[in-house]
Amino acid sequence: MIKLLKNNFELIFWLMAIVALGVTNPGSDSHFVLCPLRLMGITWCPGCGIGHAISYLIHGDIGNSLKAHWLGIPALFVTFYRIWSLICIQIFKFKELKTYSHE
């Protein structure tokens, strides 16, 4: 189990990040924050803006997503592309392993 988690850490990380952004309310001020700038009281952070923009996108609110950060849409596509490529790598490894086991 640990080996499975270790080998797929990046895939699990990105999937959990998308799920976390999907279940949070981007308009709320009370959701948990890991941003060191925000924890220090600085309200402007480009990373938080992209997170809010992606969360708005997942909720289907394109207008507020663009207001939060204009890079939210490309960031979401890049994240989905990375998830897709990591899944394809795992499928390729599984097929290769299956081919060797039949020989």
Low-confidence stretches: none
The biggest sheet amounts to: none
* Helix-strand pattern: HHHHHH
For the secondary structure, the number of strands is 0
End-to-end span in angstroms?
27 Å
Task: Give the rounded overall mean pLDDT.
Answer: 85
State the helicity in percent bands.
Answer: over 70%
Rg of Cα set? 18 Å
**C-alpha geometry:** elongated
| Count of helical regions | 6
Q: Which percent band covers the strand fraction?
A: under 5%
- Given helix and strand content, the structural type is mainly alpha
Any overview of this molecule?
This protein has 103 residues and is mainly alpha-helical. The chain has six helices and no strands. The longest helix has 31 residues, at 72-102. The radius of gyration is 18 Å and the shape is elongated. The relative contact order is 0.12. The mean pLDDT is 85.
